[in-house]
Design a protein that fits this description.
heterodimer, A: Aspartate Aminotransferase, domain 1, Aspartate Aminotransferase, domain 2, 2 domains, three-stranded antiparallel beta sheet, globular, B: 3 domains, seven-stranded mixed beta sheet
Amino acid sequence: MNSYIPHSDEDIRSMLSAVGVQSIDELFNDVPEELRLKQDLAIPEGMSEEEVLRLIRKYASMNSLGTSYLGCGSYDRIIPSAVSGIVSLPTFTTAYTPYQPEISQGVLQAIFEFQTMICELTGLDVSNASLYDGHTAASEAAAICFNQRRKSKTLLVSPTVHPFTIQVLKSYFSDMGFSITVLPEKDGMPVFDSLSSYLDSSLAGLLVQSPNIYGLLEDYSGIADTLHEEGALFIISSDPMSLGMVKSQAEWGADIAIGDTQPFGLHQCFGGPTAGYIAAKEKLLRKMPGRISGQTVDIDGNRAFVLTLQAREQHIKRERATSNICSNQALAALTTSVYISLTGWAGIQQAAELSYQKAHYLAEKLTETVGLSPVCSSPFFCEFTVDFSTTERAEKFLSGMKEKGIFAGVHLGAVSPGREGLVAIAVTEKRTREELDLYVEAALEAAHE
Amino acid sequence: MNERLIFEKSRKGRRGYFFPACDIPENEQTQSLPDTYSRCTVPELPEVSEIDTVRHYNQLSRKSFGVDLGFYPLGSCTMKYNPKVNEAAASLEKFTELHPLQDSSTTQGALKLMHELTGYLCEITGMTWGTLQPFAGAQGEYTGMKLFRAYFTQKGEMQRNNLIVPSSSHGTNPASAHLAGFTVIEIPADERGMVNPEYLEPYLNDELAGIMLTNPNTLGLFETDILAAAKKIHDAGGLLYYDGANMNAIMGKVRPGDMGFDVVHLNLHKTFSTPHGSGGPGAGPVLVSERLTPFLPVPDIGFDGKKYNFVWDKPMTMGKVSGFNGNFGILIRAYTYIRVMGSKGLKKASEMAVLNANYLKTRLMSKYELKYPGICKHEFVLSASRIKEETGITAMDIAKGLLDLGIHPPTMYFPLIVPEALMIEPTETETRETLDDFADIMIQLAEQAYHEPELLHAAPITTPVRRVDEVQAARKPVVRWRKESN
């Protein structure tokens, strides 16, 4: 019938007879009669591999691509050729979670190395095997904050955090008696003046994001000290590529660093799979969610790795676990490790610098030539926001650009009410000067039509 | 032999990849960032050549084990073959290069695939509609619990806080329920290893939120009283949650929706053949019955007869559970699998999974104990408690013995209600010969326990490392490499 089920009729006959039943149906006799399905599932008949590929290619061809300036948490970046061959090695792809350490040393070591890379990039002490994505990483970080301060009820969130992150936080916590309180915003930046009014024992922590939703870099001087005086924690979410230039989370005094590793070797793939990352200060190790690979020895005294601190986890602690996460995004995390191994720190700095230069070149040209100037209340990294004032004008510009094969930016109003007319434009190291000049040329028409 | 860490292979100045030089003329380049924002610290990242990187990870992959290498009867994980056509489908450029926020007029194929996949999963489970956002089974459970909450809140029954889970349930069930704010009540299995509707009686009141069940349960047994249990829960105003980890047993045979379940999650990385990637990415879509559809996460995927689009306007939604669209790359693989299999193929997969499990169980019953006898579904749980009593050899020792013979051990010490448990799930993709080889080896190991126990105590001896000291790992955690320690 198909190549995934090897049973011949003779196999079936002899195996049924070994079991001591007459028919396959007899194996389902324990299902109450009234529940048994009497008809076939309404799903199309199976097809050959070739036919299915033809169908899927047709679906793929219903999508279209353009020169991409889309960002807001997912970026069109260069992926070194060596990455895909490594991460499709079958013992990486077709393994389950490394429960049996003796035959999983490769995977466990790769996780250990990933944890180290994340610690080094963020400047923090400990990390884990990965979380689902950057947005849910915020929820796991928030849970650490609520856990480490027993009576805390409030997480302060900067208004310039990705709107989807805030939505995920609200769906995780707002029906639980916790408050996700969003600070006021001015000129594309959070207003921290009111921070002091929240400083009491109900405050679990503060979550900020830099580069923020507009692409702007934020200045957190003094924030960590203010929070720590009260015993609250500081969480900073960052695009890991920005860490090639911009102060790390540890340098700002954060207790927890989070983000999404998509920019490091992962295709955008309509949003997933990517990997969420989390790193924290040593004192929070036992409150960390998810799998952690630890170094130990085997009975011969050789270095070995094993999933450790499992007493935090659901399969031991059940309802008292720190998190319910089980499957994570291991292969995506491995992809990031391979990317970082290939590029090294010098490569990350180079890609970050290229993105920075190209984004500023485009911003400059758009200002000079087209009269579209970025909202610039603070320096930006590789993404900037242009104000078209209305949804209509923003959408008209984007659709005009799309006709020329350019995905010119993300209309923030479409994902975040209140931001109508604002278009975020992301430029990565992958864009060439020629493409940037074409953008400007196309924008001249699209913006003034 | 030990593989050095990639950090220990690092040599200053080596590079495995170069980005293009900057093509912006120097006189048009921008100044660097103001000091306030500039990074000062230099991270210790590996500096290795391309070939060294390639070799490093190839060496690591040789010290790992996957379905492509050998039999992997890890109970409750459904380690079936991961078809390669799935990978071909998922690597098409017009899928991999899609940005999650590009205009929906340019993503019609992706949305159509997701819309149809949701429909197929509903048909398989007997539910009405669903969401593909959850990244994994555990997040599906969590989403399901949040749907319970949203439903009760809307009905003004916020006091419904008690959530029943059987003691044999997956650990994620109570963890998810607790994290979603419910009070977890564990009920024991009865002498058959099943949920006994009578045991629900004390909790059938207006504080009951519902129950989370796996059916077939973690013993591999079909919960024959499911209809009676569902009626009691529903009559008391509660809801039923179906943990779809064991769906591979029943496709095309019986459906959770018909059993009375209100919310279902599926593990696409189990039943629907997507590779598990050494711990993820998986996917945990959630399907619901009619009355829970208003609460599904946003955005929904809609179809107006001409065009597919994201639907954000759902006033009663529980919110958002993933940043973008879940693990889209995994969804493509599962969709491909369903189209290859078709309705008859899916049914046959479940039938053969059940046949394989019963055949293997029959072959192993003489040497190991089966605490809960009867026809099993896709998996069964053996106990090594008699062997342990008589020889001192434990389920763990048997598992380690398997490692030396190139087989991934079954799930050990789960479910908790069976002592010295070995939970075996062969899946439908294995041949009779593979099952026979495994049975022969398991019987041989059981005999070895009586005649040469020292060999099993010492196992494994052929693996890259031998038994590891987990206690030291937890007592003095070393969870990262540091330069100074070198």
